[in-house]
Amino acid sequence: MSSVTERRIEIGGLRFNLAEAGTGPAVVLLHGFPDSWRLWRHEIPALAAAGRRVVAPDLRGFGESDRPSDVRDYAMPKLVADVVGLLDALGIEQADVVGHDWGAALAWSLTLSAPERVRRLVAVSVGHGRAFAAAGLPQRQRSWYMLWFLFPGVAERMLPQDDWALFREWAWNGARAGADPDADRQVAALSRPGALTAALNWYRANIDPERYFGPVAGRAARPPVSCPTMGVWSSEDPFLTEAQMTGSQHYVSGPWRYERIEGVDHWVPVRAPDRLNQLLLDFLA
After folding, report:
1. 3-state SS record for 141-168
2. pTM of the predicted model as reported, rounded to 2 decimal places
3. Domains (ranges, CATH) in the chain?
4. Per-residue confidence in pLDDT tens, the chain, 285 aa
5. Which residues are tagged catalytic?
6. Phi then psi dihedrals of residue 253, to 5 deg
């Protein structure tokens, strides 16, 4: 990590914190909820050592980047514009894009909205949005918290209680303070003024309960993803079914690859970094 540098960059009137390392063809790493670029601390050095220019931003509302107060400022078109603006500011015409959790959802949207900017796509944990909807009741049962997060003030009141006990139980299998550095890192970040609400605004701005949990039929179709795409899912993920990832192949017209990581929960980049690095180096070669 000694080779990683951080700096601030302004995009669309907001300041973003950015981690960079290496030189060569660009790889952009997009973290999810409720994280920062440090989710990728194992992947950045491996990719940089393999001759890649690695760019890992703190997305809006997270880490050291700005946290706008309006829920509407977290709508997906603005999140996509952030990444496009980042590429423009860094002089990157096209990049490989890797996303986890909400970062994967953003990566899918970026690839659909600005396909000319994405050379290859890697979606970790979260599949294509239509595949997510098509996964049906089993996925909806795992996504119960998404509806709960939509009520302003409720999660903000409940999650921090008793040293974030509910959050630790839900997200980190009950890891107590000091037992898991990544759980502690997320708790520390969310404990800052306004940080939890900003993180929850990703859900509140982008999830319409009636549409999100409704049938796929009748939804506006978008062109399939045409670039080479790899989906990665872990067998112990408590939030996401395998079907929502494997079903993504139906919405990809380019080369599709699926990889299943056994015995690992949702936090693939920090739980299985060696395996994920192997997959990334092979697929992005």
Report:
1. HHCHHHHHHCCCCHHHHHCCHHHHHHHH
2. 0.96
3. 5-147+221-283 (3.40.50.1820)
4. 668 999 999 999 999 999 999 999 999 999 999 999 999 999 999 999 999 999 999 999 999 999 999 999 999 999 999 999 999 999 999 999 999 999 999 999 999 999 999 999 999 999 999 999 999 999 999 999 999 999 999 999 999 999 999 999 999 999 999 999 999 999 999 999 999 999 999 999 999 887 666 666 555 678 999 999 999 999 999 999 999 999 999 999 999 999 999 999 999 999 999 999 999 999 999
5. 101, 266
6. -95, -20
